[in-house]
Design goal:
five-stranded mixed beta sheet, alpha/beta, D-Maltodextrin-Binding Protein, domain 2
Length: about 250
Amino acid sequence: MIAALPMYDRPENAWAHDALWARVRDGLRARGLAAPDALDRLTPHDETWGRPDLLLGQICNLPWRARHRDRVIVATADHGLPGAAPGFYHSWIVARASDTRPLPVLARRFAVNDALSNSGWDAAQRWAAAEGIALHPTLRTGSHRLSARAVATGAADLASIDAVSWRGILRWDPEAAALRVLAPTPATPGMTFIAAPGTDPAPLREALAGAIAAATPEERDALLGLRGLADLPASAYDIPLPPAPTLPAAS
């Protein structure tokens, strides 16, 4: 049995995720349910999603829509993003602060963190379509932090950064000083807490909601504004899948 909350977990705020999980764990045990002592940080995050022994996980809505619809949705995280309804989030389109070229030019070198990232690829595609421009991915970075770094260092000219991840980048990553925000993407369901098929989500949701409500101001701040849970209708996830990014062949 494993529990993993990987999506906004980084060395600077791991302590807050550990404190959150300790309360969730104790809340589950108080309800007569088994729960692991600690979060799993050894299993790659995309492998945790499909584990048959997943007690509680956290997933971006695109991989859930594309590959993991059998996973039970427990609730959606609410990080209180201005302009987004509870349980929803958006991304920020970012470029180098010193680069004032027009959008169609910047879009020729787009950094995508992952082909199955809602915030780094799907949301950017929908934003670009509304702007009447085409994105041309030139590298896959593997994370929002590395996408931000790629733009800051000139390896790419444009990226789409999850607005919650952006809070952490602004706080902890020096590359943020070299970047500017151009626009938000459309909002979609935020990070979703999931469990293995057949799981009763009710006690998980109760324990998780109680753990979030009991967070100290310092923990809430380190958890990048996590303030509660939202129960979204299934229709909120009915979003067409995007085409996969076409990246240049490795040389």
